[in-house]
Amino acid sequence: MNKDKVVTLQEILDGKESRAQAQAQLRLKYAHQQDSLISVTVNMPGSIKYTSDTVQLIYFALRELRIKITEQGSQISEEQIFHWISGPVALISVQGDSHQCKMAAIQIEKDFKSGRLLDIDVFDWEGKLISRDEYHMPRRTCMVCDRPAVECVRSRAHQPEEVMGAVKCLLTCFYSEETQVFPEKVVFLASKALEAMLAEVACSPAPGLVDRFNAGAHRDMDFFTFIQSSSALVSSLLRCTLAGWNHTGDLSQLLPVLRDIGRAGEKDMFVATGGVNTQKGLLFLLGIVAAATARHIREMGSAASVPGILGKVACMCKGLVSQELVPLRHTKLDRKLTAGERLFLDYGIAGIRGELESGLTVISTISLPQLEQALAMGLSLNDALVHTLIVLISTTQDTTIVNRHNLQVLVNVQHQAAEIIKYGGMLTPEGRQLISDWDGALIQRNISPGGSADLLAATYYLYCVKDYIDKLAGGKAALPPDNT
Prior knowledge:
By secondary structure, the chain is of the alpha+beta class. A hairpin with a 2-residue loop joins strand 2 (75-84) and strand 3 (87-95). The protein has a four-stranded antiparallel beta sheet, sandwiched between helices. It has 20 helices and four strands. The chain has helices at residues 9-29, 52-71, 98-111, 149-155, 160-177, 184-202, 223-232, 234-246, 254-273, 280-300, 306-316, 320-325, 339-347, 351-357, 361-376, 381-395, 399-404, 407-422, 429-444, 450-473; strands at 36-42, 75-84, 87-95, 118-123. Helix 15 (361-376) packs antiparallel against helix 16 (381-395).
């Protein structure tokens, strides 16, 4: 088919007749199962109907319809695409309710500015056209003005140059929208995971940890190393979130996918940091939480909740300890043990695997309520995060501390953190001074509560997600509708 060829009136009429025949044949083919029929054409003014633009618009519409039909629980029986000089045409036979199909079509026309260039007609199994009028919806507006399109066409209200100028603008919108390769909610959730990474390292003073004031009990990294590392992990966070968004079926099958993504992310991290492990554990934790969040929000929408997200985490990680750690007591490996494996064998500490398998109860019962309370009491975000970090240190079996030292050092650090909380933490001048002094003491003793820091990042992430869910439930969400 030659593109950009001027079409005659007779070819346009022949195209309409061919389309009607193809619709009738496809409808008859699946009449026994009472399929609905969707017909997609491009509303392209002018004498050239078959172009690269119109072909791409047809395939775009097909992609979006497939997604929405699947989300409705319907099945596609067959797709047909015709490359005619009068314009490309797509037909879809759907095992599903015609009214649901019409709502999917309307949603596409509504969600995308370029949807104005598409005509998506829906017929029931008997061939009846499902009209917007049945839903008391306004007619589609003109490309140039806000009046109903049918009125402007009949009255020839606009010059051809005006109409083609409007088409050009809509095509610009189309190619702009096509760069949105990820669903917007996925991008939002992944961006919050990155924000959580950066917020954790930015809150200061963070005793023994890299922060804006110093490098903590570390000699091979600083604040800027974490910025470089976090930036390198953007792709992995996005991929983990998308994996959760797209996943169907048993949640336990999602974890191996996330781990594979994580291994690729670790390589990116080591390249960015020159071989320094800044956030390997945090990537594992946030990747799982972000995937669980995406899966839960896609399923539940405004009915989503933090407990629901953490329930997904627990399901995804069920059996981690019994399957991966317990067998080590009876098996001799031909490789070096990881820190988590060694600590389990030496002290029985399940570490992050145990936390995840529990559904991160330390976050739901301690750190998230603590962060919300600190903010409600007037602390800045920085101070509320530091305060929550001290609480986490006082209650968490921080494997980073045990790995660097021993269990007794961990117990001593927990007691010191609890004592600081008794003095008010970041809520009082005395507590603030104690935290500042403690930072220096932990640095001198080479103590870094990295496990607590990871949980702080996950806590902040869930705080942001909870705020978003609350806005969804209240109808105030800043995000646009789901364009997937």
